[in-house]
Every structure is written in C-alpha cells, then in structure tokens.
Design goal:
174 residues; alpha+beta; six-stranded antiparallel beta sheet; three-stranded antiparallel beta sheet; 29% helix; 27% strand
C-alpha cells in the first residue's frame, strides 16, 4: 500500500542520515550495509572491494553478534586501513545478526599524520608503524625522511624489508 511505501522510504531516509552522521563524525571513508548473504544494501562514501581480512570478520560478527575489528592493514593499493564490522541484531533473542555495517577508515586521513609528527625539532627521529607479513616487514606509514636504502617513500610496498634483517623494524616485529 501507499502508506507502507511511504513508511519504508522514511525509514530508509532515517537510516541513511544516521549513518551519514556517523561517517562524518568519525571520518570514515566508507560505510556499507550488507544483508546476511553479503549483498550491499547501502553504500556511503567510496566504494571498495572488501579485503580478505574484512571478509573473515563478517561471519564472526554475524555469529557472535559482537563488533569485529581488523588490525591495521595495507589494502591492495598500499593504503593503510582499518575496517570495523558491526552486526545488526533484532532484539536480544535473535539467533544471528540480520546484516552488518562495515565502517572503513583510511588511516592516512587521521592516524598516520599524527604518528608522523614529532613533538620537538629533530633531524632524524621518527615513529614507524610496522606489520610483519610472512618473511617481510611492511611499513604502514611513510618515513619522514624521503630516502632509505635507495627506496622512495612512494614505493608501492612502503619500503618492505626482509624480517630476517637486523633493522629496528625487524627486531620489533619479532
């Protein structure tokens, strides 16, 4: 009926506006609502392919009805990201979530600029975020100093090094 269509349209508008407010307040790059089959029902912001990391969080969020968060990771384009999967649950007695909301943060927009700042003038000091992936170390943020070992800060792998090296990143990752 017309009344049901108007009510449904109004509810969709309310949901969209609330999610837009959450996206804006928290600087999320994207917000995606998915049904239980993984089909997108609503996408706000930049569309993206879900990483393997995020895909593994989806069933856990639906099953446990608890928020799931990825670790910091580099996506296929080498951009540092964080994904949060929030289950949508109908009441407390629901067996499983009826969908999920995926919140994607681009760490280069808010976290990495803070990490890159040094509190006092220093020609060499810096903070680096690293992640070990098998035998390699991936830097999640860019080096303050443009050149290291012949690699530029724009290298696609963010200056990955072998974890067996005795450098500080390899030592920290072990």
């Amino acid at each position: 009926s017309k009344m049901e269509n108007r009510t449904e349209g109004h509810l969709q508008d309310v949901i969209r506006k609330r999610l837009e407010a959450i996206q804006k307040a928290n600087s999320y790059e994207a917000v995606v609502v998915q049904d239980t089959k993984g089909q997108p029902l609503l996408t706000l912001g930049e569309e993206h392919n879900l990483s393997d990391v995020t895909r593994t969080l989806l069933p856990a969020a639906r099953r446990t009805k608890r928020l799931q968060s990825s670790d910091l990771f580099l996506d296929e384009g080498g951009i540092a990201r964080l994904d949060i999967v929030v289950p949508l649950v109908l009441g407390t007695s629901s067996e499983e979530a009826v969908g999920v909301v995926i919140l994607r943060a681009n760490l280069e927009r808010f976290l990495l600029p803070l990490v890159g700042k040094w509190p006092v003038h220093s020609p060499s000091a810096e903070t680096l975020l690293v992640r070990q992936k098998g035998e390699a170390i991936a830097y999640l943020n860019k080096w303050r100093h443009k050149e290291r070992g012949g690699r530029s800060e724009n290298a696609p792998d963010r200056q990955s090094v072998i974890a067996k090296d005795d450098g500080p990143a390899a030592t920290a990752a072990r």
